[in-house]
Amino acid sequence: MGRSLCGRPGPVPKMNFSRSLIAGLVLVISAAGAPLAYADKGTVTHLSGVLSAKKPDGTIRVLAERSEVASGEVVTSERNTYANIRFADGGQMTLKPASSVRIEKFAYQQDKPQEDSFVISLLTGGLRLVTGVVGARSRAKFQVGTQTATIGIRGTTFNIDDCVGGGEGCEGRDAGIYVGVTNGAVELSNAEGRLVLQAGQFSRVSRGVAPRPVANPGFVFTPPPSFLRSASSGPRPSECVVRR
User: Fold this and answer.
1) In this structure, which long-range contacts are made by residues 189-198, counting pairs with CB atoms below 8 Å and at least 24 apart in sequence?
2) What is the pLDDT of residue 36?
3) pLDDT value, residue 35
4) DSSP 3-state helix, strand, coil percentages of the chain (rounded to 5)?
5) Is 172 exposed, middle or buried (0-12, 13-18, 19+ CB in 10 A)?
6) Exposure string over 48-83, b if 16+ CB within 10 A, otherwise e
7) Is 234 exposed, middle or buried (0-12, 13-18, 19+ CB in 10 A)?
8) CA-CA distance, 126 to 151, in Å (whole number)?
9) Are 224 and 28 spatial neighbours (Cβ–Cβ below 8 Å)?
């Protein structure tokens, strides 16, 4: 067992919210201000529960709002936790509860597009992505990996839900990776084929099967109302660390 340098977090209350919040959240994310100063990092801007980041050396940090995450880290949200991370290029990633994503490589400098990179892998759960400058000017360098397909973009807002092995929110749904596009378009590809999804379209990708369109699977995306407020500001917070 690891040794924690912080206290036990309190329980996170269960919340239910109206569908109108979804549209409001997208508008707030899309209207985010100027890029952050740190060109190779993301910053937690909104958090409703327990979020952690595991470094390549095994060290685990329990994050707070204004915590930073970087390439090589695996970011995990616990049950009932929504977390929004804003990257230096203005892109946004909102993790759903019980989700985990590895930030394979993120790099952005305003005057060096040749060094752009945004590569992540969804390990479990689900997320919503709103692309930033890297996704707009260097589409070939923006990639999301999943268990059954690779996702490229054309400037967009989209959701991914991993139901390959079941998981929260997957009850009653066939196994696979589900993708839905709100704005723009994405390209799904694997060894069996490829599929371009436009806004308002959905797909399920199963193991060993080419991506194919499906009806709206009806996944819930309901971050709390606090996600509509402006991101908190100030110095970086103290973080809890578990030493392995």
Assistant:
1) 189/149, 189/150, 189/152, 190/148, 190/149, 190/150, 197/158
2) 42
3) 45
4) 10, 40, 50
5) exposed
6) bbbbbbbeeeeebbbbebbbbbebebbbbbbebbbb
7) exposed
8) 14
9) no
Residue 38 C-beta-side C-alpha neighbours within 13 Å? 15
What φ, ψ does residue 242 adopt, rounded to 5°?
-105, 115
Cα(115)–Cα(9) distance, integer angstroms: 39
Q: What pTM was estimated for this model as a whole?
A: 0.83
The domains found in the chain, sorted by start residue, are 15-218 (2.60.120.1440)
Q: What is the largest CA-CA distance in the chain?
A: 49
Measure the CA angle with vertex 190, ends 164 and 169; round to 5°. Answer: 20
Structure tokens at 121: 């892998």
Return the H-helix or E-strand segment holding 53: strand 51-54
Please, what are the averages of pLDDT over each run of 10 residues along the chain (244 residues)? 51 43 43 50 96 96 96 96 96 97 94 93 97 91 95 90 90 95 96 96 96 95 89 73 69
Which pair of structure tokens corresponds to residue 142?
Answer: 């923006």
Alpha-helical regions (H) of the chain: 20-30, 133-137
The strand ranges marked E within 67-124 are: 68-70, 74-77, 83-87, 92-95, 99-107, 117-124
Which pLDDT belongs to residue 6?
Answer: 61
